[in-house]
Design brief:
This protein is of the alpha+beta class. It has three helices and ten strands, in the order αββββαββββββα. The strands form two sheets. It has a six-stranded mixed sheet, with no helix packed on it. Strand 6 and strand 7 form a beta hairpin. The longest helix is centred in the last third of the chain and has 22 residues. About 10% of the residues have low confidence. Keywords: Signal.
Length: about 220
């Protein structure tokens, strides 16, 4: 089964699991423990699947393009699949979201070790009030041929608009090792933020009102 399809099915299985709520704020990273410096305590395990771990940076691992990072990064475990998830409640932004005015930005560094086939995926689910996935976006996997057999964490990015009726956003980070060991799959610098909706400037309101008055005047003349 494709890794993203597996994560989609796991999202349905755990959609109603108890979730620690995070505060929602625009222009703020909504992924807790996003840089591995504080371990994996903010991440929830998925049933019988091993939780990924945090390990120290060591040569020859490098980031491309180079950027600031802490002393630790995420890595898989000795199992074939490692995964964890967390969820944020965005229902307090319902009015903006349902108006189609909330954009998102998603960034992550994903990679692995040399010629190992291990790969990492960051899967983001947009959930309705019942915990059902409306839509999703994802970054990765960074397969061995894509990273040109380097031991590297490469930058991935995507953006878009939060689907209407979204009330929660779930983040699944997974590492897969086809050889039965996923410890060579890496991730760091995970970032997901919502963009502050644009508010029309006062002159825009004035022009809109002027247009409405003009329409009203035309309608009155036609009625005479």
């Amino acid at each position: 089964m494709k890794l993203s399809a597996l994560l989609a099915s796991l999202t349905l299985l755990t959609a109603f699991a108890p979730v620690g709520a995070h505060a929602t704020a625009y222009e703020t990273n909504l992924i807790a423990s996003s840089d591995a410096e504080s371990g994996t305590s903010a991440w929830n395990a998925i049933d019988t699947i091993s939780m990924f771990q945090t390990v120290a940076y060591a040569d020859p691992l490098f980031l491309y393009p180079d950027t600031a990072h802490g002393a630790m990064h995420f890595a898989g475990s000795s199992s074939a699949l490692s995964a964890g998830w967390q969820q944020v409640d965005v229902s307090d932004k319902a009015a903006d979201i349902d108006g189609g005015r909330v954009a998102f930005k998603l960034d992550a560094y994903l990679g692995g070790v040399g010629n190992q086939e291990d790969n990492t995926l960051l899967y983001v689910s947009f959930l309705d009030a019942s915990g059902i996935e409306i839509n999703h976006t994802e970054l990765g996997p960074n397969y061995v041929d894509l990273r040109d057999y380097y031991t590297v964490l490469a930058a991935f990015h995507t953006n878009g608009f939060v689907p209407e009726q979204t009330r929660a956003i779930r983040f699944d980070l997974s590492m897969e090792g086809p050889d039965g060991n996923s410890s060579g799959a890496y991730a760091d610098n995970l970032h997901f933020s919502l963009t502050t909706p644009a508010v029309p400037e006062p002159q825009s309101y004035a022009l809109m009102l002027a247009g409405l008055f003009a329409v009203g005047a035309v309608a009155r003349r036609r009625a005479r």
